[in-house]
Fold this protein.
Amino acid sequence: MRRNASQVMDLTNCTWMVRELGEAVSCTVLLDDDTLLVGGWDGTIKHWSESGDLIWEAKTPNRISSMVLQDGSIYATSGLHIVCLQASTGVIQWDVALEGSADEVITTRKCVVAASSVYDIEHNDFIESAIWSISFDGDVLATHRMDERPWTLRPYNQGAIAGLGRPLNGYLILDVNGAILEQNKEWESPTICATFGENPVFGLADGSIRTMDGALVGSMQSAISNVIEHAEGYVVADDKGNIEFFDGDAQWKTNGNEVVAISLGFDIGKNESCWVARWNGSQGELIVHSISNGKQIASLKGHRIHDMAFNGQRIAAGCENGRVFVWEKGLFQRRMEQPNQQQSDPLRSAMLEKLRALRK
């Protein structure tokens, strides 16, 4: 496998497949069966099979920012709307217009829960937000309006948990029907992001990472933009491009351009991986780090990545130019084990291009 002078592998030649959405990618979802859902900035959704065949294509009203699959249906944010599509065909079953931009959607076993927000250009701020409870048939069950924007919405304890911005900050917990159970108003800084799972931690605008009871897990120089839980600790990024992996104390750190997406990845050799997409205003880069020590393993330069998805065996990255790259654990491992190749190897490049074409 081709490597650069610093022995960092070039991701370009070890992709499992590359697909084209036809517009800038805004949302990627890798399902458990290795099929791929991708949504775009103009509302297109495509569903590809495990082997890369196009299953269906759908057109929705506007940008897709979030998608979730449950019981044979796909629920997606689409501009001002929540849209329900039949998972097997992509046929739109219903759509509900919200009051403001539909930001995120999740499901409980009882209903669809969505967050929306209204942005005021003159005030340069979000002036009104809401959390919506919608039946699986598309009926609005309840609307919780608030001044605080729900910056993050996660499944939690059969219901949902939302991290809130100013003025109240903190978070609120919703039950399985989308009704508010509890609200934390103790924090002085807006809640920006959160991990998944039964015991989430939250990243705040003041650079702190906190548990639900407010205990300080760690802190960084500026606002936390991403936090991911790992078996051995947390991977955290701030809005200055700094990344830390820590469990009590920092195990390793790295910095660079703005972090626009971050994801855990499959094992590479004996080490788990962390995939980081950065953007410097004119050029993007995807960097694969070892979780154990932060060492760079591989990279992809030149693409502005908007979203990534990981399902345990594959990782997908969606780009502004409409391309979607997918890497598969087995193929990646085999390429890592191959002897180094010279960078200027036209025969090898031509062979790899033909192999990728077979999966188109």
Remarks:
- DSSP finds two helices and 33 strands in the chain.
- The longest strand covers residues 258-268.
- Helices lie at 329-337, 346-358.
